[in-house]
Structures are given as C-alpha cells and as structure tokens.
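Running this now, will post back.
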Amino acid sequence: MKFGYRFTLVLSVCLLLLAPLAVFAQTTGTIEGTVTDQNGGALPGVSVDLTSPSLQGTRTATTDGSGRYRFVSLPPGKYTVTGNLSGFGNVQKTANVTLDSTASVNLQLSLATKEA
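Update: finished.
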C-alpha cells in the first residue's frame, strides 16, 4: 500500500514540475527585418505594414534609427510586408510565419522618380 502512495506522490510532483513547460510552449512567431535605401544605408522612420488572412486588420510598425522593425506574437500563416516612406517607392514582400520562429524580411526602398 505504501508503494502506491509513494508512486502517486512522485508522479504528482513530476507533473507539477513539468506543467510550466507546457505554458511556455510557443504558439506564435515573429517577423523582423531592416529597411535600407538602394545604397544599403539604414532608413529610420519607414512605415512598415503587415497584413494577412491570419490577422484582423493591419499591424503597423515604424523603423528605428538603425532601420530595424519587428512584429511579435503573430499566428502562423502567410504575411505581406509593405514598406513606404515619403520620397521613396513602396516595396512589398511575403513571409511565412511558423510556430516559435522568426522570419527575416529585409526591405530595400528606391528613390521615387518625378516625371517632368
């Protein structure tokens, strides 16, 4: 009889110790990248939009001083990343987000040309 109680106690302790691991299992992914000009220089202040059938609406981020942006906690799926900045043409790329991973999407904007 004592063996049954000990076994149950040990099993219960093991399950309690493993429970937090299930809580930390990732169910989302991340998209991050850098936006540069055609010469490779970082572009701060670029508006980066993220759309997908996996999202409700559009998420928007602005690049920091080194041209970097990041979208976190994204459900798995296919995403469209669009970068735009006044004076530059828009650029669009696609990315696939999988569980517990980071998709890198670097964008390169070109100067917009004006017609005379």
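The mean pLDDT is 87. More later if anyone needs it.
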